[in-house]
Amino acid sequence: MERDLISRLAHADHPIAAPLGDAAVTALLERALPRGDEHLLDLGCGGGEWLLRALALVPGATAEGVDVSEAALDHARREAERRGLAERLTLHQTDAAGFVPGQPADVVFCVGATHAFGGLLQALAAARKVLAPGGRVVVGEGYWEREPSAAAVEVLGDLADLPTTVETITADGWVPLYGHLSTRHELDDYEWNWTGSLAARGLDQPDVLAIAAAHRDEWLRGYRDCFGFATLLLAPLS
Q1: Mean pLDDT throughout 18-40?
Q2: Residue 202 and residue 209 in contact, taking contact as beta carbons nearer than 8 Å
Q3: By CB distance 3.0 to 4.6 Å, which of 10, 72, 136, 149 could disulfide with 198?
Q4: What is the pLDDT of residue 2?
Q5: Alpha-carbon distance 181 to 187, whole Å?
Q6: d(Cα 117, Cα 133) in Å, to the nearest integer?
Q7: Residues 225, 143: contact at Cβ < 8 Å?
Q8: What is the mean pLDDT of the chain?
């Protein structure tokens, strides 16, 4: 099964493709959109849930989303129509790393998608290029809560701890204005939804069940006890 279709099925019951609950998402959006007429851009938008919730919360906002997945963008379009938000949302199927918007964005989102740029600093560099003066960035990145096992590193790659992650961001010329550290409940809820949603839609498909089981095993035996996730609201230094 194609990777983007797996992701779409796995996020069916947790449309925010990151370990954040609804209250945390709303709090971040309220901080990021104080004016009410912002233009938003999500680099690696997936199913567009961050943008859809922002548009519902702030009726004066407009938004663009960029992703390479046709399945994810089709889902975003259907949801935008269903929620009456389609007129304020434009979607682009292209590589987010090279995307140039028609206008600078007041808020750039890149939550759980920094890998598409080659890492955190590369994602922030791309966001800076498309950010309007006085704009903000909402970025979500994993970190190690404690020393990872070799199995965890093999699955998730070379992450830093939280203080080092924040220091790396500030050294790159960004000021954290707000942040959310995913709770144990949010982290576990995300993984149970990912594996369970995929399995529920593939009970008659052994290959789909195998993918869900392999992910569940990587989580429970590999990174559950050492992985954390931070979502930060950032402003560039002038």
Answers
A1: 97
A2: yes
A3: 10
A4: 81
A5: 10
A6: 22
A7: no
A8: 96
